Structure formats: structure tokens, C-alpha cells
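[scheduler] slot 2 assigned
[scheduler] job type: sequence-to-structure, two independent chains
[scheduler] chain ordering preserved from manifest
[runner] begin chain α
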Amino acid sequence: MSAIWSHGVHSGLVSIKTHSLFLSASGPDRDHNDLAIVVIPGLTSTIAEWPAVRRLVEPFARIYLYDRAGYGKSERSPNLPSSQIIAAELDQLLRAANIEPPYVLVCHSWGGILGRELYERRADDIVGIVLVDAADENSNAVLPFGDPDVDEIRRDVDYLEISGTAANHKLTPVEWEAFIAVKSAPGYADQAAKELAQLIPSEESLALKQELGRKAPLMGSKPLSVIASREARDFRNIYDAGVSRGNGTQKQREKVAKILEGIEEKAEEVQKEQLSLSSCARFLQAECGHSIHLLEPGVIAEEINWVLEKIKESQMRNDTNGVAHCNNSFIVS
């Protein structure tokens, strides 16, 4: 295990041969077999969104954040950012930095798909997962991505304002400015477009693996936390704001209104179906929109701690399979 990345606060570029990725580490010094928290940001997102979570986690666990290729200080990759390639590059990053397992993944939004791709590569090394309003193979059924009529209705609507993120985030003023600045950084728009193009293919690829609802769960009894947002409420507010701006024809408005019917139930169903990935899983309903890491970072920190506690319990019992046993549960925040 590398002392550079296992002790103190450290950040910098790590070469994975074809290019270098920016990595940040903080929290208690890590010895062999200590758990490592690995954060996987969502679609078109960077570590600039995660300082509030990091502040809450680093007092009790070593936390690693990284920027995918083409974002922040990370170099561009010669490869298209498919979910499989991104998982392979994260795998290479962990190995190149000598960050040894065991790992607990924290996966937000598209990061849920990326985390499951990484799990396929490192199943023996990943001992727990926290899914934060994570996308899965059925997410497109909630709100069709790239639908031109949906896009027209929400045209020029400021999501950060409508969702309350701009007013209620838990970043410092300097951190918020850095988060906003990322969107205008050179190369960001190009990399974001490449990722956006991979969203639907990544869902379709994951669906082929038929991991949900297996009689023998994918993760066995490793602890899994599924945190859901109230983003469906934001979708309705975006619709109202778009209509108020005069966006869309009457036909387009009627179509999108139809899509929004029952969207809360559909969104909850997609989140809860991920509980089937483990026999030791619990569901928590946050009260904010999709950016839980910005709005309710304490919820994420609490669920990370729950996963760590379940792992410790299993170690104390010295279970033969080395994982925790628990009953699936539901919590309303």
C-alpha cells in the first residue's frame, strides 16, 4: 500500500499509462485492510461537487475522490467514455496508486451504473456500496433521456434554481464558485457531450446482465444502502417553469404532462428495485432533489457509516463468508 495515498491529505495526477487522472485522498491514515471509501460522481460531474460529503466522512473514514478523464485536472482519454471503459480506468487508477482493497463505493446518479461495472471487475474487493439516487438499467423509463419534447419544455430553465440547489447547497462560497466554474472550463462541454451519448447504451448494456431480482443477489449479503431523492418533484417544477416561459407547443406540453403522470411512483420503484442486489440492503428516502451530495450530505455520510458498521459486525462475528447479515429495511428521512 502506497504511503502517499494512505496517509495525510494528498492530491495529484496518477498515470494509468494512456493518460493521467486526478485523485484526492483525505481522512484517517489507512493501514492494511482498513476500508477505503471510493466516490464515483454522476454524469458530467466532478469532485468539485463533493466537498460537503468529504468534510463529514473524513473524520471517520479514508475517502478517495477522482475526476474522470477530460474533467478538472484529469487528462483526456484516448477512449470513448463508455461505462465499461470508465470502470476499467478507475480500476487502473486504484491499482496505479496502490490503493488496496477493501473498498466501499459511493455512487451518485450515473455513478450507480459505473459502480456496478466496477463491481463486475472487482467483486471480491468491494465489500459495500452506497447508491445515491443512482441510475440503473430502468432509469430511462422514468423520464426519457434525450426526448426532444422533454428537452423543449425544459429549455433555458435553470435546474439549480428550480431544484433549490443554488439556494440550499451546503458548499462554502468558494466551493460553490469552483463548482460553477467547472461547467465553463476548457474541454468540459466536449467531454460532457461524449458522456451524455453513453448514458442510454450503458443502461442497455447493464440490462443484458440481468442483475436485478436474482434469486442469489449479485452482492450476496454485502451491505447496500439505496438513497432516493425527490427529483420527481423537481421535474414537475421544471415543467411548470418551462410552460410559464412559453416553451413547447400544446401537443408537446400534453405529451410531457402525460410522461409526468405517476412519475413519483415510477422513480421510487426504480430506486427500490436496486435493493435486490443484496440480501443486506436498506432504503432511505431523502427530502431533496437529485443533488443529495450538495443538499443533504449528512444523509450520505450516515449511510456510509451504516455500511461500515455492518461490515464491522460481520468481522466481529467472524462469519464464514465474511459479510454482514441483516434484514432489508426502509427508512424515511
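[runner] end chain α
[runner] begin chain β
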Amino acid sequence: MEFIKAQRTKIPHISPLNLASRTSGIGDVFLTKPTFGHVMGAARDLSLVLKFTAEMLTSSPFHSTGSNAGLGLEAAREFLASKPKRLILAVRNMEKGNAARQQLISLKELPTDIEVRKLDQGSFESVRDFVKGLNGERIDIAIFNAGVWNAKWKNTTDGLESDLQVNVLAPALLSLLLIPNARRATTAVPESPAHLTFVSSGLHEMAKFPERHQSPGHILTALNDPSEYNQQDRYATGKTIGLLWTRELAARLSSNEVVVNAVNPGFCKTGIIQNMSGMMAGMVKLTELLLGRSAADGARCIVDATLMKGVESHGKYLSEMQVKPESPLVRSDEGRELQSKIWDEIVTLLKEKGGLVQSAIP
């Protein structure tokens, strides 16, 4: 019933902000967090990193992943209404990314410089190369929106299960590598801290997540074992782990330094279930038809979490543009203990396979 109620909640429109009039002219910044709702007079360069199934960046500057379709593309449009200085589309498929760029630049009187850059979340090397390509430039807003929902087991080039790497591990690595960029943005405008925002899902409440009962150090091993794979539970479990990571990262960073939050855009009519098949796919598609939120409504939730929400959202889960409680598991004593275990396991794996260095860990 709570899911139905949430899906039927009307998502209000966001009044566009004139970001172009508030930037100081620095063009190569990818997603900065302007807390426009409460620092209306502050001038700053805005860089946004948006993490979607594809990838996208926009600037006054702003970076967004997953921007060539669905939520990513709609979020780009929503951000562009506020006339950011720069938008970078970070995508796995450059051809589709360039097509998305053409759609966006067709908007009338658009002052934003739109770029397309390569980012394949199924490759840790690609994540590192992407961040390296930013050359240490400030990031005001980073939105990590991974949205793979595979119908069967699939390995990445790094030898990991695809849902696990794309939805959890790659965003975790990207968030750590972008902390210096975010800190640089906050140093420039201390009254408006940079934002790292993870796109979550209300489906995390449905996660069974039996792998959590493994002994410390073996949870990710179990999740990467084909014999233990449960396709029906994998997406929800991934989003649960994502929330645990968000909470732990927030606990390690001051909100005055970098705001870390998670946002649920709702169950939207996007292409995320295109790889599903069978009875499960039929049930999900029927739910999408009857209760699915438009991609535009979901995108406004994402934009709200980055442009309108400030330090009060640090470490919080947002849904329907409000701070909401996570699942009982995430909030429980078990969840707090699991949060620490998951952090340690992810960091260990990223050191071994993702090229993460100790100095990048807060």
C-alpha cells in the first residue's frame, strides 16, 4: 500500500533558476551543487555529475551519467531549464550520447555548453579514466544513477556480476574518486557545499538479501557466485547496499564539506526493464503500465535532491521530494553493523580490482 501511495503522489514542478547569471565564468566544471533553495544570492560555477544507466554531465557545470535516455535525458532537460554553464553527458555508447546531445541542443536559447564523454560503469578502468579526464576540476553536484536490471547472470570485463558492478561498485568507486573535485567546489563557495547524490529505489524495501548472513569478508563473494544468484532479488539487494554505502560515506564526510544523500525517483516508465523476460517481466511491465511514474516526474525528484535540498539531507534518503525512512533493515542495529561490513568489503574489492588507493578513502 505504501508503494501505491508513493507512486500516486503528485510531483510538483521546480521553478527554473538562472544559473548562468550566477556563475563566475569557469567553464570546465562538471556538476557542482548549488543549494539554490537557501543560497539564492551566491555566485558559483556549477558542476554536476549525474549517474544514470547511461551517463551525463551538465554545467554550470553539471555531470550526469545515464543521460542518453529515460531519467538521464529528462534530468538533463530539467537542469537545462535553469541555464547551467556546462553539461557533460557521460555515456557508455558514444553514438547514443551524441544523439542525446543533439536533442538537448535543439532547445531554444540554450546558453549551456554540452559535451559527451565516455564512461562505462562495467569497467573500473573506464571509471578511473573518466575521473582522470576531469583534471581535478571542481564538481558541485554528482548524481550517481546506475540502473541495470538484467534478466540473467552476466559478467563484466572485470569478472564481476554486472548488476553488482554497475549498480553498486562502480558508483562507489566514482564517488570516492570525485571527493577531491567536490571538496574543491565547496572551498570555492563554503556556504553551499557540493553534493554527491545516489539515485536509489523504493524497491530496496523488498530486498531479501540472504547474502548478508555470510561471515565478514564474504558477502560480496556470495553476491558474485553464479550458483547463489537470484535475479528476482538482485536489483533490490543492490539498491539496499547502495543505501548502506551512502550512509557510511555520509558518516565519513562532514555536511559542511560535502553533502551526501540518496534519492528515490519512483518506479518510472523508462527502459530499465528492457532486458527482463518471463513471468517476472510481465508482472513488472503491468505494474509499470498501471502505476509507473513518468520519467519527467522522476527527474524532478532527482533535481530537487541536488538543487533544492541542502545540509539537512546529509546521509538521508529522499522520496517524493521529502526525507523518508529507509527500509527497517537499513535502519536496524543489524543494518548499522552491516553498513560497516559492506563498506570494508567494497573498499577491499576496489583496492584489488578497481585501482583504489588508500589516500582516496575518507
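[runner] end chain β
[qc] chain β: The chain is about 40% helix and 15% strand.
[scheduler] slot 2 released
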